Amino acid sequence: MAIEVRVFSDYICPFCYIGKGLLDMLAESYDLTVTWLGYELHPETPTQGLPMAEHFPGQDTTKMYDAIIARGAELGLHIKPAELLSNSRLALEAAEYARDAGVFDAFHAEVFRLYFGQGLDLGRFRVLRQAAESCGLDIAVLRSGLENKLYANRLSAAREQAQRHELTGLPTFIVNNRYKIVGAQPLQTFQDLFDKLSGNGAEEGD
Length: 206
Hints:
This protein is α+β, with helices and mostly antiparallel strands. The chain has a single domain (about 5-200), classed as Glutaredoxin, CATH 3.40.30.10. The chain is built from ten helices and six strands; from the N terminus they run E-H-E-E-H-H-H-E-H-H-H-H-H-E-E-H. The strands form two sheets. A four-stranded mixed beta sheet has the order 2-1-5-6, with helices on both faces. Strands 3-4 form a two-stranded antiparallel ribbon. The protein is globular and about 45 Å long. The model is unreliable at about 200-205 (pLDDT under 50).
């Protein structure tokens, strides 16, 4: 029986990228049905983005990434320190168009890669266009959808879902609509829960 996982995440969150790596690895051993839900972590970020030095004043943001880079490498992810905190709104909305077009997984992976692997600004349409073109999406339809805010209501709905689950951090994994794992926890944490669900089908509450 498939294990259903809903994940609240944002493309500017390095731990969400690690969470993706974890689920990709776990999918090799477990029957998972994964749904990613966009949650704008910093809606206050200006459209042009914000330098990390301003978002974390007085802190060495490069050093902050040391553990993140090492964790990502264990999962086959290339992560370099982000210099700009992007406004992720357009990226999250664009992902909904990719979902409708049946290429969400490919677009999802590419957006993470462009931000954490290449340091590109996700608030720029040209960057989203690059991700969309790699997935064969219709750029004119994407642009129109973003300009007309066709997918904004989905982000609002996802935020409402997150509030019902009392979300306290990203990523948040909701497993079989009953269990909640907050953050990119160690692989063993997921394995212990997935083994329990796969082995006897138990779905007791938290």
